[in-house]
């Protein structure tokens, strides 16, 4: 593990957990990389003027009037988020229908948060009304234009929707996400039960944010406040996980495995000879885990090699070479000791199970929707088994609302005859949330 501390950024550390031993001819090296960011207070965070910009996108389509309390709750939640903005943060509020309209400050720019602008924004929110369709790609593109106008490190969006993206094609939304990826991060929330889970989670995934359901609109204000508090805690943007491999070695996959499962393999950008960068977004004081799998050349017993060098890098604000924040090493050692080479590192085993848990929940729910109840029972039973074994109590509780658990240890379950739509959507939305490996 190595640390590189700079006075104006939090300190990052990288810890590598692995079993480095391979049998003769073995080629696959697995490691869990824990990245921790601490001590960000030295930079003043986003409380420093000009450090961050936030755009809040509120669904104002016609369905937000059913029931009428939904629109009122959305207004109140957005007002609560505005109140949570720190002085000096640039911000705007966008009303989203089949078009996007900036309702505050309303002149194509961003306001700077202070007592006056927060009050003006909340006054503008009172005039929000529901009517029109849903074209989320247009909301994201307007947010991107607004955020791009600010000379800041942290650019963040918060998006609320209650319905399906019916007034633009999936290709239009995908193109908007591709255009916005890497330019700002975005948290997405679905309110009620008439929205599409894969749309909302897809937005958050593409823009390296969080996704969740707020089944009862009355819970929006608390959720928006938490989201904004988290956004205000971010201090370093555009951090990348840089992986260097020696000649003959290659990255098989990279995925974030805590606090949620997020596939990163296909997001690689080349960063020099045999090196690639994988985006991780913005960081505050927090810790995340990544599962790295490297394929190395075959070697004889007794040989040893560096399988990968893991670095945390961020762009140099002055335009120079990227700054290294921390570093760790992944090793490979070939042995004829069967016990050593077949031992699975506890962290690797745990997160392999958590990734499978997320996958079988998705597969089980998809099978249930398509009427393949045998496959749904098998997949969701396996999910119950994995959740119980890993101590993922939150997911276990969500699963128990969809299946009757006969024996958690063996994964024996029965599908419930009736399942509340909100319960099914909550399980699907939160299926990628993981628990950290238990301390030994």
Describe the SSE topology.
Layout (H helix, E strand, L loop, with lengths): L1 E2 L7 E8 L2 E2 L5 E11 L13 E8 L9 H16 L5 E7 L3 E5 L6 E2 L2 H11 L10 H13 L5 E8 L8 H11 L4 E7 L5 H10 L4 E4 L5 H13 L3 E9 L5 E9 L3 E2 L5 E2 L4 E9 L2 E10 L8 E11 L8 E12 L3 H5 L3 H25 L2 H18 L2 H7 L3 E5 L4 E4 L5 H9 L11
Parallel strand pairs: 3-19, 5-6, 5-9, 9-10, 10-11
Antiparallel strand pairs: 1-19, 2-4, 4-17, 6-7, 6-8, 12-16, 12-18, 13-14, 13-17, 15-16, 18-19, 20-21
Helix pairs in contact: 1-2, 1-6, 3-4, 8-9, 9-10
The value of Rg in angstroms is 23 Å
Percentage of β-strand residues: 25-35%
Let me know the number of strands: 21
Distinct helical segment count: 11
Measured distance between first and last alpha carbons: 20 Å
Low-confidence stretches: 41-47
Query: What percentage of residues falls in helices of 4 or more residues?
Result: 25-40%
Question: What general outline do the C-alpha atoms trace?
Answer: globular
Classify the oligomer: single chain
Largest sheet: 7 strands, mixed
Q: Give the averaged pLDDT, no decimals.
A: 94
Helix/sheet category: alpha+beta
């Amino acid at each position: 593990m190595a640390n590189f501390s700079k006075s104006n950024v939090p300190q990052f550390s990288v810890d590598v957990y692995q079993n480095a031993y391979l049998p003769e001819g073995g080629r696959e090296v697995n490691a869990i990389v824990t990245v921790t960011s601490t001590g960000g207070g030295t930079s003043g965070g986003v409380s420093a003027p000009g450090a961050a910009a936030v755009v809040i996108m509120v669904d104002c389509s016609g369905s937000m009037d059913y029931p009428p309390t939904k629109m009122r709750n959305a207004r109140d939640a957005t007002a609560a988020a505005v109140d949570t903005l720190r002085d000096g943060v640039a911000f705007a509020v966008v009303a989203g229908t089949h078009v996007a309209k900036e309702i505050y400050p309303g002149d194509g720019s961003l306001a700077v948060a202070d007592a006056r602008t927060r009050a003006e924004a909340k006054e503008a929110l009172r005039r929000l009304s529901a009517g029109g369709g849903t074209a989320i790609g247009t909301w994201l593109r307007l947010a991107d234009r607004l955020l791009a106008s600010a000379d800041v490190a942290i650019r963040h969006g918060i998006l609320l929707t209650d319905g399906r993206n019916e007034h633009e094609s999936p290709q239009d939304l995908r193109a908007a996400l591709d255009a916005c990826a890497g330019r700002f991060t975005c948290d997405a929330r679905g309110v009620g039960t008439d929205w599409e889970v894969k749309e909302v989670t897809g937005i958050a995934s593409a823009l390296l944010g969080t996704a969740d359901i707020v089944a009862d609109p009355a819970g929006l204000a608390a959720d928006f406040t938490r989201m904004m508090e988290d956004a205000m805690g971010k201090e370093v943007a555009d951090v990348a996980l840089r992986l260097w491999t020696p000649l003959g070695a290659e990255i098989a996959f990279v995925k974030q495995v805590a606090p949620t499962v997020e596939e990163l393999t296909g997001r690689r950008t080349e960063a020099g000879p045999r090196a690639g960068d994988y985006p991780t977004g913005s960081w505050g004081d927090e810790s995340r885990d990544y599962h790295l799998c490297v394929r190395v050349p075959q070697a004889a017993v007794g040989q040893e090699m560096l399988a990968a060098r893991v670095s945390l890098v961020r762009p140099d604000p002055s335009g120079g070479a990227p700054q290294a924040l921390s570093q760790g090493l992944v090793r490979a050692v070939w042995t004829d000791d069967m016990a050593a080479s077949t031992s699975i590192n506890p962290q690797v085993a745990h997160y392999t199970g958590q990734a499978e848990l997320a996958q079988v929940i998705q597969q089980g729910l998809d099978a249930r929707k398509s009427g393949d109840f045998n496959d749904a029972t098998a997949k969701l039973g396996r999910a119950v088994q994995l959740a119980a074994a890993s101590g993922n109590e939150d997911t276990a509780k969500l699963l128990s609302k969809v299946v009757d658990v006969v024996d958690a240890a063996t994964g024996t379950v029965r599908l419930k005859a009736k399942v509340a739509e909100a319960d099914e959507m909550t399980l699907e939305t939160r299926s990628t949330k993981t628990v950290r490996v238990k301390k030994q």
